[in-house]
């Protein structure tokens, strides 16, 4: 199939808050690089509002308000609507048709086994009242990915079980109904620290829902204050104590963000992160110096992002227009896939001339037989 040879990227975010630096290193930074590398034939970036509603049905205003925030963060980070299609999930209803078909190909127990969903369920404390839509969101994510024939999905580590579940659906569908859907490949950040950036509180993942984030749009002072109050190594009580850099969020953030140029610019007494780490582990290096450096690094990365955001904030109608146009473009692409899927499933009744002809012939034959029988009986009873 011609389309399957293309390199197509799809990824997205839930509009449950502004984007944070975990999103940036986990996926957003990579998207911008891929966009600018021109290595892709098509790039789709989705604001997953329908997915966000699965655990926010009582708080629709939050989702509604954050669509524009996420769009602004995209543009601020450097995504270019001339190169990538940015769209809103609910405005592409084709995705929900695919979701319905795919739901028949997964079992409830498989959905309950998804490790990311399991930990998210625990975090959200739904108890006995788990929304069915939330449990099934990996299926709708499979629809999102396959609708665009995406073969590359740049995401953080928490998304690995989703891509696995997506591919199970792809294989099941293709084996039942013939080769129709495209296999997806996860693209994790090369830098290990970026795959699951911890929260400023030291919790395993920086997450909008946990409130332990540094946002891309936070101002310089907020970022500095957040960094200065960050969790570090609890055993590093005095400056002269040897410290641990592993599982220490400050060093994890530095691994994700600091370049050798940052050392030259802000902390020239160390050549690179390895040299800084070695000193911290030896003892004699205080947290304040390391944190001050991290704040400088983050602000250096975030300054151009903040400035670009301000420019786009001055034209909100233009940003909505961009989302509307992107959604129409995405819908046209998803429609092609839906037509292919309908054909594979045999639910393409109205365009299938052969089916209409075959059924028409069969019923004509049946009617003719009935007429003949009636005529025979009438003659016989005369
Ligand atoms: P929510 O709490 O509403 O689920 P979230 O902060 O987990 O929000 P998502 O919108 O679910 O954000 O995730 C969007 C993308 O960002 C995904 O590719 C995900 O893997 C990535 N991502 C989210 N948090 C992190 C993180 N802390 N480190 C690396 N990548 C992350
Ligand atoms: Mg999430």
Q: Care to describe what's here?
A:
The protein is built from 16 helices and 5 strands. With 382 residues, the protein is mainly alpha-helical. The protein has 3 domains: 222 residues, Rossmann fold (3-Layer(aba) Sandwich); 91 residues, Orthogonal Bundle (Tyrosyl-Transfer RNA Synthetase), CATH 1.10.240; 31 residues. The strands form 2 sheets. A 3-stranded parallel sheet has the order 1-2-3. The protein has a two-stranded parallel ribbon with strand order 4-5. The mean pLDDT is 95. It binds adenosine-5'-triphosphate and magnesium ion. Adenosine-5'-triphosphate (ATP) binds next to helix 1.
Topology, element by element:
Elements: E1 8-13, H1 21-37, E2 42-47, H2 49-53, H3 60-77, E3 85-88, H4 94-103, H5 108-113, H6 115-124, H7 132-135, H8 137-147, E4 152-154, H9 160-177, E5 185-187, H10 220-228, H11 249-257, H12 260-266, H13 273-282, H14 287-313, H15 316-345, H16 353-381
Parallel strand pairs: 1-2, 2-3, 4-5
**What is the CATH homologous superfamily assignment of the largest domain?**
HUPs
Which topology of the largest domain does CATH recognise? Rossmann fold
Q: What overall geometry do the principal axes of the alpha carbons give?
A: elongated
Distance N terminus to C terminus? 65 Å
Q: What structural class should be given to the helix and strand makeup?
A: mainly alpha
Provide the gyration radius in Å. 27 Å
**Unreliable stretches covering 5 or more consecutive residues:** none
Specify the CATH architecture of the largest domain: 3-Layer(aba) Sandwich
Q: What ligands are attached or bound here?
A: adenosine-5'-triphosphate, magnesium ion
Sheet with the most strands? 3 strands, parallel
């Amino acid at each position: 199939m011609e389309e399957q040879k293309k390199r197509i990227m799809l990824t997205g975010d839930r509009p449950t808050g502004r984007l944070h630096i975990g999103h940036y290193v986990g996926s957003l930074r990579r998207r911008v690089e891929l966009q600018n590398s021109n290595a892709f034939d098509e790039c789709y970036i989705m604001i997953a509002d329908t997915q966000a509603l699965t655990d926010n049905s009582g708080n629709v205003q939050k989702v509604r308000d954050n669509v524009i925030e996420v769009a602004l963060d995209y543009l601020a980070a450097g995504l270019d609507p001339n190169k990538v299609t940015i769209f809103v999930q609910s405005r592409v209803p084709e995705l929900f048709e695919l979701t319905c078909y795919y739901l028949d190909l997964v079992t409830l127990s498989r959905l309950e086994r998804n490790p990311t969903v399991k930990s998210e369920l625990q975090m959200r404390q739904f108890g006995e009242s788990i929304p069915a839509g939330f449990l099934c969101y990996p299926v709708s994510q499979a629809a999102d990915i396959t609708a665009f024939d995406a073969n590359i999905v740049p995401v953080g580590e928490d998304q690995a079980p989703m891509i696995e579940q997506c591919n199970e659906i792809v294989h099941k569908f293709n084996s039942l109904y013939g080769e129709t859907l495209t296999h997806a490949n996860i693209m994790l950040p090369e830098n290990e620290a970026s795959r699951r950036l911890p929260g400023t509180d030291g919790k395993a993942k920086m997450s909008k829902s946990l409130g332990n984030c540094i946002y891309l749009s936070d101002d310089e002072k907020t970022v500095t204050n957040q960094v200065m109050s960050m969790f570090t190594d609890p055993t590093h009580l005095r400056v002269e104590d040897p410290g641990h850099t592993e599982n220490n969020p400050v060093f994890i953030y530095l691994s994700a963000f600091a370049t050798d140029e940052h050392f030259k610019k802000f902390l020239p007494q160390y050549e690179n992160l390895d040299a800084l780490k070695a000193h911290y582990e030896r003892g004699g290096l205080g947290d304040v110096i390391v944190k001050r450096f991290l704040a400088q690094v983050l602000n250096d990365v975030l300054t151009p992002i903040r400035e670009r955001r301000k420019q786009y904030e001055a034209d909100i109608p233009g940003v909505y227009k961009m989302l509307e146009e992107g959604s129409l473009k995405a819908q046209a692409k998803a429609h092609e896939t839906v037509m292919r899927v309908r054909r594979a499933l045999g639910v393409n009744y109205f365009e299938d001339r052969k089916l209409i002809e075959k059924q028409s012939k069969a019923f004509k034959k049946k009617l003719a037989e009935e007429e003949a029988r009636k005529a025979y009986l009438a003659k016989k009873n005369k």
